[in-house]
């Protein structure tokens, strides 16, 4: 057995049985062509050492079998960009579901805030991130092998892509929005602190003698909500007076998004936020159920909104927007 046969036998041993003969025949023709070209250029038959050099230049049998054999990569180059995008989202979600409960516990007066944050960062986050990353990897591998349909990303049209806006938001429009935010936030602070006389603790009449009474959670969250409103007011003032400080505004938006997500989590766990009185009536129980369902929907929409705000602000900071 000459060197070529030994080389092809080593490659064949690493190939799937169903394709072995065809691939070996193709490799034999390719290698014989290379050897003949070398002999023609030399004008004489190649020695065993020269033939071995040709085979060595072609590649190790393991590498050649990998090129001609079945797919070896878990995720190919076509799916990889989508995989990385989904992986970044998964890590962000893992961070949110790990940190937000800790922040909520701190807001509610939990003991040892440093320990809560440490547990979130070094215990909950790694496990959540690994679990979500593994799930994303499995889905991407399934897409790569055709197990998971990908029609949503393959059947797309250029004509359906969004048209980029050529008009940038002007200074007047930016400041108008900032003024509106300042006014609304200032009025809320006046109302929340009682300087604008509206008695939020009194029962609110609903119908047929039924009324809504605020739960105790509102008293517990008085200062956190006031602090959140103050930060929002400060951010609106920055947007009004410093329109060019995009990154500074993004910092405020990021802080507001995180705080808003934490507040939403606390309120979600504290439902009912209002109780229908008198509670013993059947109609009151039914109305309470409907009201609580509506509160959950509002909290869910708020959570999604704050998550989008966090993502947008973080992206602007990451890209170094000016």
Quick overview:
This protein is mostly helical. It has helices spanning 3-12, 20-42, 48-58, 61-68, 80-107, 113-144, 151-154, 171-193, 217-220, 222-241, 246-269, 282-319; strands at 204-205, 211-214, 274-277. Pfam families: HAAS (PF22564).
Describe this protein's structure.
Keywords: Membrane, Transmembrane, Transmembrane helix. The chain crosses the membrane at residues 82-108, 176-196, 216-241, 248-268, 297-318. Pfam families: HAAS. The protein is mostly helical and 322 residues long. It has three domains: 3-68, no CATH class; 80-160, no CATH class; 173-319, no CATH class. It is built from twelve helices and three strands; from the N terminus they run ααααααααββαααβα. The protein has helices spanning 3-12, 20-42, 48-58, 61-68, 80-107, 113-144, 151-154, 171-193, 217-220, 222-241, 246-269, 282-319; strands spanning 204-205, 211-214, 274-277. A three-stranded antiparallel beta sheet has the order 1-2-3. Strand 1 (204-205) and strand 2 form a beta hairpin. The protein is elongated. It starts with a helix and ends with a helix. The model is unreliable at 198-202 (pLDDT under 50).
